[in-house]
Amino acid sequence: MSNTVNEFDYVIVGAGSAGCVLANRLTEDSAVTVCLIEAGPSDKSIFIKMPAALTFPIESDVFNWKFESEPEPELHDRVIGQARGRCLGGSSSINGMVYVRGSEKDYDHWRTLGVDGWDFADCLPFFRKMESFENGADPSRGADGPITVVRSKADHPLYQSFLDAGQQFGLDDAGDYNSGNQEGVHVTQATIRNGVRCSTSLAYLKPAIRRPNLTVMTNCLVKRVNLDGDVASGVTVQHNGEQKIIHAAREVVLCAGTIGSPHLLMLSGIGNRDELATHGVISRVHLPGVGADLQDHVVAPLRFRSPAGVSICKQLNTLGRLKLGVQWSLFKTGLGATPFFEVGSFFKSSDDVDYFNMQHEFLPFLADFQSGKVHIADGFQYFVSQMRPHSRGNITLRSADPRHKPVIRFNYLTDQRDVTQMVHGIRKTLQMVEQQAWSRYRGESVDTPGLNATDNELAAWLRQVANTEHHPTSTCRMGVDDMAVTDSQGCVHGVSRLRVVDGSILPRVPTANINAPIIMVAEKIAASMAAR
């Protein structure tokens, strides 16, 4: 194989939620050249663009890396699938489009971990910069950013029952949960523009793609970061059957995600030297924290039947789907323009937690998004998630071959505190379903325990059904301790001209769906890089 050499100022690996942001912001300076490398294809697919079709890219081998965990010891050794985007836009092209910033306390807590410059007051300008909120600008919200944020219609009776039941239980109406109070029930905000998924590819990459100083390479596998001593000089890639070396005059920036970025660091000899040696990888920089501290939101579905014809299920039969597709194709309206997650809530599992630590997402029909093909049935389901887990997992090499996916261990529910919080959150959810607002629509439960179940019975059921919210973070986390991988600007400790900017650098998983926080982090670091 020949080694074709190209040189750019910046080489960005991964065109996902963070990579597209950096590619746009850095090329605003016409004197700066950028190469953006993506392992997957373009995102030009109706199944990515149509919000209601979100299950198709998730089920796809083309647009989804389809990672899998090792058998999870506290989940009866079940293997848990992890969806990560593999196309332009990355996970923002296959996610549920739910837009949540997280609690102010999440970011203020990062400061206590030695990460300077990440208080919420430091982050707010970049949340405002990135968003175009349909309700307009105010001191908390932005109105002219690249990411379009809309408020869901939530006009189905099951959505209203969810909102009413939460308030009858005692939760507040949070209103704009991304401004001020996040705790309580809410109508969901989503990253949708004129009925189309607003991924970072649409929002950031499309406006920049024609700039002469931006080169985008798709279907391109990065094999390793090239190091000259402790200086990153570029990357080696496999592209169109040819091995190429792409030099970076200023920096290599990894935006390959919480799984991809630590994997690539380890393939390049950056990580725990003992772990690397077991796979014959020569240690270049000993950083034991690479791949460690993996965090994710664990979720349990509570499912209930409803009277026939009440749920959205009746509109998703064969004829209904045809109508949905035609209406969306012609007008970008109707059910095709919604991901269906139109209401939700944040609440405390108990009074002894510092602030709300549980999330509800909700669907007005029964469907299983975790096991291949989706089967729709009449009913409704709550998804109960714990937002700040104590359990920690890790990512390690499977082999030195970059084509082999890494070994992933989430270790869900290995910390008893997580089990306790989830059990309390499930019990509160069962109490919400018993509220008067559900009396007209609540049918029998589907494999869901009742309120009379003991804590031990709820914990046993939880271990049988628990799954992932697909929100992994923190495997290259920012910090100053011995297990930190990056500094407060994403620069890799012990290596010059190498940076990581994606969900892997978050010091702690936020009380949020993670797409919005990752875009904010990329905006903030991009501004710092451009100002140099």
UniProtKB/TrEMBL annotation:
It comes from the Bacteria. FAD binds at residues 95-98, 222, 503. GO terms for molecular function: choline dehydrogenase activity; flavin adenine dinucleotide binding. The keyword Oxidoreductase applies. Coiled coil: none annotated. Residues 85-108, 257-271 form the Glucose-methanol-choline oxidoreductase N-terminal domain. The keyword Oxidoreductase applies. Keywords: FAD, Flavoprotein, Oxidoreductase. Its cofactor is FAD. One of its GO terms (cellular component) is membrane. One of its GO terms (biological process) is glycine betaine biosynthetic process from choline. InterPro entries: FAD/NAD-bd_sf, GMC_OxRdtase, GMC_OxRdtase_N, GMC_OxRtase_C. Gene3D superfamilies: FAD/NAD(P)-binding domain, Glucose Oxidase, domain 3. PANTHER family: CHOLINE DEHYDROGENASE, MITOCHONDRIAL, GLUCOSE-METHANOL-CHOLINE GMC OXIDOREDUCTASE. Belongs to the GMC oxidoreductase family. This is Choline dehydrogenase. It comes from Pseudomonas arsenicoxydans. The lineage of its organism: Bacteria, Pseudomonadati, Pseudomonadota, Gammaproteobacteria, Pseudomonadales.
